[in-house]
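Objective 1.3, modelling of assemblies. Example input:
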Amino acid sequence: MADIQSLKQALAVSPDNVPLLLMLGEAYLEQFSLEEAKASYEAVLRVDPANPYARTHLVQLLDLDGRSSEAILRLEQVCGEYPNFGPAWLLRARLSLNENRAREAREYYERAVALDPSLKNDDLLKRIRQAGGQRVAEEPREPSPQRNGDRQAGAYYDPEFEEDDFDDDPFDDGDLEIEFDQKPDVDFDRVGGMEAVKEDIRMKILYPLENRELFEAYGKRAGGGVLLYGPPGCGKTLISRATAGEINAKFLSVGLHQILDMWIGKSEEKLHEIFEMARRHAPAVLFFDEVDALAADRKDMRTSAGRTLINQFLAELDSESSKNDGVLVLGATNAPWHLDSAFLRPGRFDRLIFVPPPDETARDQIIRIMAEGKPVAGLDPAALAKKVKDFSGADIKAVFDQAIEGALSEAMKTGKIVPVTQKQLLKAAANVKPSTRKWFESARNYALYANQSGFYDDVLHYLGIGK
Amino acid sequence: MSELSHGLLLQDQGRLEEAEACFYSVLAREPDNDFVFGRLALCQMSQPGKKRRALDTIAEAIRLRADEPFYFSVKAIILGELHRGKEALEAAETAVRLNPEDTFALSAKANAYCAMDRWAEAEEWSRHALALDGDNAMAANILAHTLRIQGKRQLNAEAVERLLAADPEDSFAHVNAGWTALQAKDQARAEQHFREALRLDPESDMAREGLLESFRARSWFYRAYLSYCFFMQRYTEGKQWMIFLGAFAVYQVSRKYLETINPVYSGVLVAVWLGLVLWVWLAPGIGNFLILLDRSARLALKPAERHQGIAVGGIFALGALATIAGLVSGYYPVLLAGVGLLATTIPASLTFGNVSSRGRLVFGSITVLLYAAVGTMIVLEWVRHPAPMHPLSSGLGLFALFATVACTWLGNIRSLRRSSDD
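Predicted structure (tokens):
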């Protein structure tokens, strides 16, 4: 968020500048200076009396002031006048949720997101769901004797949701809230650089799948589990998605929050459901992000609840080969050293792939992508890529953010667009410290002192430490 | 597994920053959850630079639940780490008062005594805790530690044996065993224990430091230095000062007395005294320099330790060679360079690896000034040779001497060698 002082300076030059007034209002709102925020939005309305942004924010301020009924009335008015204005619908969803009208909240939320996908808010959606705000189609649910089969108690069946529905893309998975890509739109060609990792994946995943019979002749099994490890923000998820794209399989990305549940037994149930879904849609790539939390070393666990989840995970991985046939399980972790050793045994995550920070080609590509749509003058991606060695994608974004902040501050003073220069980017690159450094400090310790099985040889190789 | 369980798991895994974020997220929903505040304080306590914040966090837990001995025990441990021994003891005593049979509280009390260097009392209270729960790892480790520091070797060896028998996978027990072996001058065994501790917990700084000590102890001169450290460790800070001042007084009296007999004897005594002072200050840096010469051992060094090895051990070796060469050849600019380089090693030893930012600033500035003074002296005398010494060189020489001696005194001020958060 722009600095309030700079915004005020800019407004002193251009007092009726609506975008600036809105930014100032938002900045005040962020730091909870409600009176000042209100004054800014009222100033917008003096210039543009119908401005939906200012009106929506004023409604928000009314609600924060405890005048909820008045807020809802005014918001209904905004929504009526501007039916295609997403932020108003999103606020309406929030207000309805506060009034315990979860179904309405869900309807408004869906409408807001349909109008403007960037308004998607997982946290709000979760709260709406928890308050009972399921989608209309999700509601008539009864336990199903036909589909219950190997499901555990507590799972539900939607009678309108037949097996064939799985062929449609995308499909709703009800409570699991999982995004299931029919065909990932990424493959190796669309991932810049990282050639060594790609080659590793080809050798360990793609060729075995392409030459299934050959492998079986040697008593080896294609599919199974592969563990990707490396510093955070270095493309483990992207490369997994691209792997699915390469083998033309469906890609099921599972985040920790989609499995962990506070109720005993529910997490295990969800995990089983996810594996079942992947099996039904084989060939599929089942991708577990932050797998170290699901497959944590049992020595580190205090509660038996966590242990049963691990046992369930092991059982799913160990399912007789025919069941998991065509399901490639990919796990990504920043902390492979916290995995239970049982997960690294043959048939489970028995292949390891180290995903290092992006190489120069990848960094060059990331820089080009980051510069897209921004006023950048005289960009030399190759020169910048050289300066950001060991930076993760997130670190490179931080470089751009810092440089843009500098340009924006200038722009607000002059009231004109000031381009971001290569010099500013290089300066920002010198200020930002690569976040991967900390990871390598830990990884180095594990590689030096706990590498009896050669698990971290790739890390040692990357760090240039001979064994 | 809820978010709280996930946070607890992350904490158990030693992923403290991530655990901290998890706990904050739980607290955003449950701002009155004292248990989470307690866990959060434990997380912060173990992270560099966050001990004061940990103290605020545990105060919040106590505000929410003032009858929980666990929170007072945690507070005592944090205060102990902040070297606020008396307050730590007060908090631990409150915890014990709330539940006299709480072994964690008893261990926290033992720990508070450790923070005050009152080893006998620490031993006594760790024994109290162990009498109630023989498997209490914290109390057992404190007991082994206090026995070792008090020089009760036999009892210490038995305590360590018990620790390892109870849990051979306890990294901290191996660290304790390593120090016991090191104190018994068995550096090979010490190395073995520290390596095992690192295998079990590769991120244990205590184990890494122990391993480095065992590497350094391969040389006789460092073993002697360690014996001196083990001897001094037994005493409180005040007593250590008394020993130091007493030794200095004895040295001064002896020097003056020897002067009346024969000035040569007095000179020898001065040389021995200076040698001892140099040895005490330079041993860690020289030890690191020796580790740098070992291809595999040097991997255990952190960058600051490597720099210390070069700036202290490397420069010391260079200075000593130049001094000898100067003395042998009679070419005094070389002698001057040698002595000057030797002088820079003392402030350098107090700069690199110093965790106190204030200390780094003070000693770092002195080191830089010394480098400049010695550099100027060398160039000036080299150019002017064989002319007699320039008055500026004499002045700079005096300054170098004064700064070096000042560092040996300033180096004893603990606040210049401790992190502001510690």
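Chain B touches chain A at residues 1-3, 5-6, 8-10, 12-13, 15, 169, 195, 198-200, 202-203, 208, 299-300 (CB under 8 Å).
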